[in-house]
Specification:
c-terminal domain of poly(a) binding protein; 5 helices; 75% helix
Length: 115
């Protein structure tokens, strides 16, 4: 019995990887073994960094809130403690956006928290 090779499936699998490698530099875009390794590594980074992105944005929001709160004479931790004790249910994303784009509203929140 002759050997059965599913050429259609293996060709489709290679085409899928080569499509993902489009735009890469040098042999990464047109040599199968190099492209396969580059795409696998890229997909690994994509999976990891979908989670890392969340951490980085939270850190950015905290920095922005901290800078705006210090202008009002509070540290970040003092401000967040007062926000939670006063029952203001605004998350860090909204507070950071107010601090950046609407400083008057952020100042009003700080005054409400202090008073």
């Amino acid at each position: 019995m002759p050997r059965s090779v599913n050429n259609v499936a293996s060709r489709a699998r290679r085409k899928k990887v080569m499509r993902l490698a489009k735009g890469y530099f040098g042999r990464r875009k047109n040599v199968w073994t190099v492209a396969k390794n580059a795409v696998e590594k890229g997909l690994t980074y994509a999976y990891r960094d979908r989670r890392v992105k969340k951490r980085e944005f939270r850190a950015l929001w905290i920095q922005r809130i901290n800078a705006a709160a210090r202008e009002e004479g509070l540290s970040y931790s003092q401000f967040m403690h007062l926000v939670t004790t006063k029952g203001i249910e605004l998350n860090r994303k909204v507070l950071a956006d107010l601090a950046m784009n609407n400083p008057e509203a952020f100042k009003a929140i700080v005054q409400q928290v202090k008073g």
